[in-house]
Design goal:
disordered N terminus; mainly alpha; 3 domains; elongated
């Protein structure tokens, strides 16, 4: 029998196959070779029709897997459309198996979109609209497995979890296999219990959980961040800046709190008491943009970009008396306290004063605006 190589459907060369299958025959016209090629061709036209041809993903499924996988690994072309369209077949799918596969594909794409790499809201809107098509009525009825009997989703990319199916050890690959008849055959051959993965209750629960994460993440990345509650912590009763708690927050290794402080600083700037406070606020806002890799979401950058654009457009000296300015990453609470009250708080290091140089602030603002414009589109 002539086996396809690598499960790709191409027959072995006659010289190789005939040496084991038909003795001295070495011609491609060998009947056994022709029969093998015919079985491979028949299986391509009607998958599963030739029992001795190994199962493999359909070409469409393999293409879809390769395309989306390249996006998740950071190499994809037209990444936003690829992510937004992940699982889009859920708009019309009715079968449990196809729907289960589509939900896992959309879940894998959603995890990527919520990582902060996606900078346009419509991508998350499309994923949410797709998953909203999944009926959740199965959640109203118990299944034979019980909620504790359902499998745990593997990682988004290659997963080292020993319980993950070896043939599809990440959520995306597993979803593509589940949504493809040939892929399901491969999973069965690998000993995967399809009844667990195709359970309607499990599919509905996965869709519900992914939808919740998408909606929360969309608000976190693109919504309006509330900062008014920080007034009680960062302002004195008379409305002036409480520099001690302000700088204590700045020095904390709490990225979400520091980002929120940056937004608060940007909004506070118009109400600052004097130029010294404005300097502290500008530096704090600019520093908040450096916290998140690869860059801040629009929910963070929106107000800060507005402030920095104002600073950059304000007339300022093009040169100064300083040979150099310290990197923003060196800014700390002690330097901010000195800049806020230079007459009473000693400089913690020699270049602390240069943080507040007008030319330096303008350069920081210009860099910040340029960076945000590169990360986030105008709304």
């Amino acid at each position: 029998m002539i086996e396809p190589t690598d499960g790709a459907g191409a027959a072995e060369p006659a010289e190789t196959a005939s040496s084991t299958a038909c003795g001295d025959c070495s011609q491609r016209a060998c009947p056994r070779n022709i029969a093998g090629l015919a079985r491979v061709g028949m299986d391509r036209l009607e998958p599963g029709s030739a029992a001795d041809v190994p199962a493999r993903l359909s070409e469409d499924a393999q293409d879809a897997l390769d395309s989306l996988n390249s996006v998740l690994e950071g190499y994809g072309f037209d990444a936003y459309n690829e992510i937004a369209n992940a699982g889009s077949e859920l708009h019309y799918l009715k079968g449990d198996a196809d729907r289960a596969g589509g939900v896992l594909v959309a879940t894998a794409a959603s995890s990527y979109a919520l990582s902060g790499v996606v900078r346009e809201r419509w991508v998350l809107d499309d994923l949410i609209e797709t998953l909203e098509k999944v009926p959740l009525d199965a959640l109203d009825h118990p299944c034979a497995h019980g909620d504790d009997g359902h499998p745990r989703l593997p990682g988004i990319l290659d997963d080292d979890d020993p319980d993950s199916p070896a043939v599809a050890d990440d959520t995306l690959t597993l979803g593509v296999h589940l949504g493809d008849a040939d892929g399901r055959a491969l999973l069965q051959q690998a000993g995967v219990d399809l009844a667990l993965w195709l359970c309607p209750r499990f599919t509905a629960a996965t869709a519900r959980d992914t939808l919740r994460e998408l909606r929360d993440g969309r608000e976190e990345l693109f919504g309006h961040r509330e900062t008014q509650h920080l007034d009680a912590e960062l302002l004195h009763a008379d409305g002036t800046l409480a520099i001690e708690p302000f700088t204590a927050l700045f020095d904390r290794r709490d990225a979400p709190a520091r980002e929120l402080q940056g937004i608060w600083a940007a909004r506070r700037h118009a109400h600052a008491a004097d130029d010294r406070e404005r300097t502290v606020l500008v530096l704090t806002a600019a520093a908040a943009l450096r916290i998140t890799h690869p860059g801040p979401a629009i929910a963070l950058a929106r107000d800060i970009r507005t402030l920095l654009r104002t600073v950059a457009e304000t007339p300022h000296p093009d040169t100064c008396a300083h040979d150099d300015h310290p990197a923003l990453e060196r800014l700390d609470g002690a330097a901010l306290r000195h800049l806020h009250a230079p007459d009473t708080v000693p400089a913690p290091h020699p270049d602390a004063e240069t943080f507040g140089c007008p030319a330096h602030l303008a350069a920081l603002a210009e860099d910040g605006v340029r960076d945000v414009d590169g990360w986030c589109e105008e709304e």
